[in-house]
Each structure stands twice: as C-alpha cells, then as structure tokens.
Amino acid sequence: MSNYNFGLSATVAEPGSFYDLGSTQDRLVEVLVDCPGVQGLYTYRIPPDMQVEPGDILNVPFGSQQVGAIAIREINQLPADLNLSQIRDVEEVVCSGFFPTNYWTLLERVAEYYYTQLIQVVKVALPPGLLARSQRRIRLKPDNIENPSPSPSPLAGRGAREIENPNPQKGSRASGVEAFLSHAASSILQLLQAGKTGDYTWKYLQQQLSKKHRITPTPARRGLQELIRRGLVESYLEEQRPPQPQLKQAVSLTGYRHSPDLTSRQRELLKFLGQHDGDLWVDDFVEIYNTTRETIQRLEEKGCVVIEEREILRLESSPVVESDRSKSLTESQTQALATITNLSNFAQVLLHGVTGSGKTEVYLQAIAPLLEQGKSALVLVPEIGLTPQLTDRFRARFGNKVCVYHSALSDGERYDTWRQMLTGEPQVLIGTRSAVFAPLPKLGLIILDEEHDSSFKQDQPVPTYHARNVATWRAELENCPLVLGSATPSLDTWVTINQGSRENNFSNPSPLSPPPSPSHYLSLPERIQSRPLPPVEVVDMRQELREGNRSIFSRSLKEALQQLQEREQQGILFIHRRGHSTFVSCRTCGYVIECPNCDVSLAYHHTQERAPELLRCHYCNFVSAHPSNCPECSSPYLKFFGSGTQRVVQELEKEFPQLRPLRFDSDTTRTKGAHRTLLTRFVNREFDLLVGTQMLTKGLDIPQVTLVGIVAADGLLHFPDYRASERAFQTLIQVAGRSGRGDDPGRVILQTYTPEHPVIQAARTHDYQSFTEAELQQRATLNYPPYGRLILFKLSSLEETAVQETAELLANELEKNEPNDSTSSYEILGPAPANIMRVANRYRWQILLKLPLDSTVTLPDFNYLRELCPSSVSLTIDVDPLNMM
Ligand SMILES: Nc1ncnc2c1ncn2[C@@H]1O[C@H](COP(=O)(O)OP(=O)(O)OP(=O)(O)O)[C@@H](O)[C@H]1O
Ligand SMILES: [Zn+2]
Ligand SMILES: [Zn+2]
Asked: Which SUPFAM superfamilies does this one have (predicted)?
C-alpha cells in the first residue's frame, strides 16, 4: 500500500470521529472476526483505494485490538441497526486469494441447508487458529529510508502531517525522516531500527510501544499506517515456515546378518526387517515389533544393521511404503474407469462393487491422469485410523503427493496441511468427513469411499452436515465428478442414482428440456480373479442350546476355529460390543447396575486375571469398581449378561488355549498409531484371530483371512430406529466381505437367535438387491427417507421439567405453523423423551418433523423457535438425522 494517495488520507474516519463521505460512495464489507467467543458478522468500510474480495484475510480494528478477519461479502446497504459513524475501516488486506473461488458459496449453502450460522460452518471448515496463526509482521524498507524516491513517492506527497510541517523538503534525507512523523510513528521506527533485522511482529511492537512509550493501540495503529503510507515500513503476513528438512533415524540391514552369537529374538527381528525390504524407520520398527532402541543398537554393534539419519518429508506420517504400479484391470474395472475418466463435468457416479472387487484400484487409476493434468483429488473415507492400508496404497502409487487430513492430527499439522493445499500443487488429499471442506484448488475429482458409512454424518455439534451432501454441492460448484463407492450403497444413494440414471436414459434431448441429471451406475459384480464371495452359514443358537451347547460358540464355529491353525489361516470374530458384558444384574433380586449419570446399565470390563474389575458407562465414560455384593440386597450372586470383546477373548482362551486372539476395539486402539501396529502384527501372523467390533468392517484387506465368525448378529438388529435394518445389513455384508480375499476360499459363520429375520436371510445370500427393494417399500409406505425428509429437534437440559416444558412449547409452535394445505404440510412426531432419556445428567427430549420430499413446505422460522428456548435448555436442529438419540 505504499502508493496510498495522500490526499485522501485526511478523509479516513478516525475512530470516534466521523467524516461523511456520502453513503452512496461507501463500500461496506461483512467480515468474520477471529476472536474467541465472538460470533456473527461485523461490518467494516473498505477504504477507497482498497480491493477486498470475499475470502480475503484482513486486519480490522476490533474494540481496542487489531484482529484477523475474513471478508465474507460486500454489502451495499448499512444494516438497519448501525449508523455510519460506528463503522470502522478495514485496516489492511493481509492476504488475498486465500480461498478458492466458490468456497464461500459452499459454506453458505451448508449454513442454509443445515439451519446454522455461517460462523459455525466456518469453524468446522477451517483448521483451528488459522487466522491467529497468521502473524502480522512489520519490517523496515531500508531503501526508502535511505533514498526516498521523488514524486509520486509518499514522502513527496502532500498530506495532513506535512501540512503541519512548514519544511517538507527536508524529508529527503534519512536522518530527517523522523521530523515529519508523529510521536507514535517515530517510536515505531526507532524500535525497528534498534533491532538487528528491523523486523518484528506487530504484537511485539505494540507491547513495546505501550510499555516503553505509553502509546495506546489506537495511536500506535495510526502511527503504523503513517509509516506504511510513506513507504518506510511494510507489513506482511508471516509466511508458513518452509518445510524444514526433518531428520529421522532409519535402520537398514547390512549384508552381514548371520552373526553366530545372536539370540533367537535378535534373529527374529532381523527377519522382520528383511520382510520390509531390510529398511524401516527406527520408530516404526520399535512400535511394530514391540522392541527397544537399545535392542536395535546392539544389533548395530554386532554389525547386522546400520542406523542412520535420513531426511523425511514434513507431512509424512506413516512408514515407508513400497511403491507399486497400476494393476491391469478386470473387464468391469476397465468399464468403470472408462466412464469415470470420460466425465469432465459434474456428475454423480455410484461405484457399486462387491467386497474385494477392487474399487480402490479404480480410484487410483482415475486419479493418476488428473495429477498429470495439474489437478487434485479429494478422497473421503470413514475413519483414517481404521484404514491405514488405504492410505498406504495411495502413498505407494502417488508418493508424497498424498496428504492426510483428519481430526486426530495436531492443530499444527492440520494447519500446515491446509496452507500447503493452497499452493495449488496437484495432490491427493485423503481425509475424514471434515476434509470435504479442504480448500484444494483445481479439484478434478471427489471420491467418497464406503459412502454408506454413517460416520460421514456429524450428529453434533452443529452444523449437522453429511459429507456426502456437501461433497455433492462441492462437486457441482467445482464442476467435477463425484464417485460414491460401496459394496452396500446407502438407500439414499441408491434411489438418487437410480432416478438420475433413468432420467439420463429416457430424457429427450430436445434443447428445451432440462439437461439430463448426470448420474451413472457402475457395477463391479465380481471379486478380483472371479474369487467367489464367501458362503454364509447361519447357525440357529436356539437349536444349539436345545442340543446342549451352552458355549457362546456354536459347534460349527468351534470346528472352524480348530482348523485355523492346522491350515495356517487366520480368522476374524465380530462382536457387536466392546467390554466384557453389556450389563450386570443380581440373581437374587433382579437389580441391574446402572450409570448414576445416564439411563443405561453399566458394562462390565475385565481384561485379564489380575486386572481390576470395572463397571463402565459407554455413554459418559463413568467408571466404578465392580461391587462384590448387590448394592440393593447385598446378595453375592451377580451375573453377567451379554458378551463383549473381552468376554469372547476370555472364552477363547478357555476353550482354545492354543489360539492366539488379538482384541481390536476402541479400548485397545486408543493410542496414536495403535490400529496400524495391531494390524501389522496380525498380518505378520503373530496372532490367529482378530476379535473386534464395528471397526473390523471397514476396508480390511488381509488375504490370509478365511474365516469370519459373527458371534451374535442379534445385537445389530433390534434398535428403535427406522434405519436399523439397513445398518445391520451393511455391517453384516461388510464383515462377511473380509473373508476369502486371497487364494484360499473363505467362509462366514453367522450366529443368531432369529435366523428367520429378513436381514439375516439377505445377508446369507449376499442379496443386496432384494433386501433393498423390500426395505424401500417399507420406507415409502411410511414416508421415511429417501421418500421423505426428517428434521430432528434435539433438546437437552440438566433440568428435567425445563426440557419437557420447552419441548411441548416448541411442538405447539410447530403445530400452529403447520400449513393447512395437506400437500405441503409436515408431520410432527413427538415431543417425546429420547430413547435414552438421560445421558451425562442431561435430560433429553426430541421432536421429529417429517416432510414430504418434493413439495416446497414452508417451515416455521427456526430462529424464532431457538429464541423460545430458555438458557437452561439447549436445542440442536439435526437435518436428515441418522441417529435418533
Ligand atoms: N485388477 C486387479 N488385479 C489384481 N489384483 C487387484 C486388481 N484390482 C484390485 N486388486 C487387489 O484386490 C484386492 C481387493 O481390492 P480392494 O481392497 O480395492 O477391494 P474393494 O472393492 O475396495 O473391497 P471392500 O469394499 O471390501 O473394501 C486388493 O488386494 C487389491 O490390491
Ligand atoms: Zn440384589
Ligand atoms: Zn453414563
């Protein structure tokens, strides 16, 4: 801004004073300020010679501070509750073009659809502290101080300050510059000149000014403006530190590995290292093989390995992976790929491929040419920790063009990844749901893998967005294709795509009809190498009991477990719950031990012989010691009901002492990298059986797994939720799909007390189509999604009566507003207490609105409803809810 027109500077409004420029001339901008606890948009004036675009990062005065802000939109009318004298000027555009075009349109669309304030959307979209981290710095411009150039140099101009000074020409010598300056400005200059580099953060300068010169923020800011106008100093945003070469220790095998005095453990470690091409990061080696640095050093002393420092990429966060090349595709993969690569505009594609059909290979080959064209791709996955394999496959193909973005990254890592994206380098970003907001410029393709997975939906906090919706809007705005991949597509997607592709086929290409809805259905109906899907054997556990088998394992499953080791194969046992037992009750009086904070029973946790016996709440994490007597009647006879992962592992140890089970659930995978470590050990055959929950269902590709046992399918079936069947079916098919992915054929043993249930029957035959048709019919009858829309009002409060009264009040309001015309009306279900009425001491009520799909229902003003809630009651509006509390 060194060419600031001095003549105009006199008209810049000083805080507290007011120069009327005539309102027609004023350009106003609404900004989001980055200040903790501050919400909403603030209006500022754009100085006449400043250009501000939506998305620019600004500096604005805020109270007595100077804060970072984002320009949201220009407005041409002053908000009604403000008058011009209150409006302050944008101080400076710190950084322009920070966000890709369309980015703000996307965020606004999310805010609108999910009935949230824009600031809430911005909070999920941007990495934490994005603005706060952009430090503003001030540095001297020594050239201008020593040789101020002639007109139109700022020094030669005529401005307010110079008029005060009778002899402006003296300013042409450096030593005389200070003579023209205000006290604040010359103090700043002094501070800068006193330093070695003449370069400080503005924050530091402000502190010094206030401490040493008693200059308050307002004059300080004016002083700085003065210096900038005169071209004596410049202000800049501290650059992201260039990637520092970081060094890390790697361990590699030497040729000399048969030293005679090696222990068997040392030999084993060398063998493991050999399996990784003789080369690993020391950290990874220690973690994966449960060894220590000292052990590795001893191997080095014996000359079997060398340890050396190697440079790593700053963003790299996983072990080195072998690079690989494109596989030659099967016929259906080829067809699918051809369709996807031929799309250059917005289109929605469903890639419906059975488990193990090679969807990932299609993604990889669809992305490769984009990178060559300088474009980027966004790959959304349910949970990154659970799928280290997927990330590895991408890294193996695209090396360091792959970045990972998810909430488990540290703030710093997230910030770096974000800034790094803005460079516009073509890259592949793999991330979980919030990565749908990643600001990749030149986006060529969005992929949502396992699109049926409910972790793409955020239940809380607001915005309660579904990444699939946002991805669709994003693809539309970027005009690029969106690929939804799954072996068990959600019914929502199934219906959308079917409708879309029908219109596609039958639309009449007259120029007057709307363009065909760009939907494509692509199918991979077979596994790679025509391997069969594993047969599913359904075992009726009632029958087992009748025939005298009281074990949690059926005879079939026992036999299969016995065969595992003989055949050198591995298996997976799926259990619906972690912990040991789902509840504990007294045999004498029937008392069930419950959480003091929630309306649920406590689960019994006990991992091994000497470990403490604990009761744990799976909702609020309350923990207590397991009592030895019934708290109600003191009876010592407490019984455990329901089996969790711990119990199954204990039973296994009793019945199959030779089998080596590995528990894989959220209790055992809490630490960073634990998923990878455990899976690696399993793949290395340190264990025979993986025993785990839901997290087993997501994308595991382990060829030597031939057996999948579902210990009790019933736990999945009975939920008071209209989606229970859909979810249960997806889970069963996905778990079953982990079996038989290699050369050996697989099998699935599904144990249940309700073998006749339609979900079990459909899973038995892997019959997606008929399950889906039957389920859709039921949804249509009841106007449930995808044939209707739902909006869930979730209320909660520490006060039981307050939340009930508020729920009733809101329901009344909704009823009052209900349109009379039956075609455009909505249905109100409730108010009702939530399924679990109290969680973490908060009482929960809900109201469900059911809306027809195709009408334009006028909804009541939700902001008004929000205002009706007393401060003790919190209200969340969940649009298209997936979990009914
Ligand atoms: N054309 C191919 N030729 C040989 N092997 C392939 C080919 N395509 C994929 N594979 C391999 O087949 C296995 C299964 O592929 P992938 O994991 O991509 O299946 P998927 O469809 O994503 O399965 P799921 O939905 O069960 O996760 C992988 O090990 C992959 O490397
Ligand atoms: Zn009792
Ligand atoms: Zn609880």
From this structure: P-loop containing nucleoside triphosphate hydrolases
Q: Which CATH superfamily is domain 787-879 in?
A: Ribosomal protein S10 (3.30.70.600)
Per DSSP, the chain holds a count of helices (H) and strands (E) of 28, 34
Residue 95 marked ligand-binding? no
pLDDT value of position 579:
61
Contact of 354 with 487, CB cutoff 8 Å: yes
- Is 403 known to sit in a ligand binding site? no
Which CATH code, of 3.40.50.300, 3.40.50.11890, 3.40.50.12780, 3.10.490.10, is assigned to 531-578+644-778? Answer: 3.40.50.300
Distance 531 CA to ligand 1 centre (A): 11
- Cβ of 487 less than 6 Å from ligand 1: yes
For the residues of 341-354, what is the DSSP string, one character each?
HH--S-EEEEEEE-
pTM, two decimal places:
0.73
Least confident of 461-475, 555-569, 630-644: 630-644
Written out in words, the top-level CATH class of the domain with range 331-504+519-529 is alpha beta
Quick one: which of 790, 842, 852 has its CA closest to 819? Answer: 852
Give yes or no for a contact between 748 and 708, defined as CB atoms under 8 angstroms apart: yes
Q: Is the pLDDT of residue 213 over 60?
A: yes
Q: What is the pLDDT of residue 245?
A: 38
Distance (Å, rounded) from C-alpha 711 to C-alpha 571? Answer: 13
pLDDT at 465 over 80: yes
* Cα 849 to ligand 3 centroid, rounded to whole Å: 28
Q: Which CATH class is domain 6-99?
A: alpha beta
CB distance 355 to ligand 1 below 6 Å: yes
Work out the pLDDT band at 580, boundaries 50, 70, 90: low
The finding on whether 737 has its CB within 6 A of some atom of ligand 1 is yes
Residues with CB under 5 A from ligand 3 (ion): 595, 597-598, 617, 619-620, 622
Ligand 1 atom showing the smallest separation from residue 450 Cα? 25
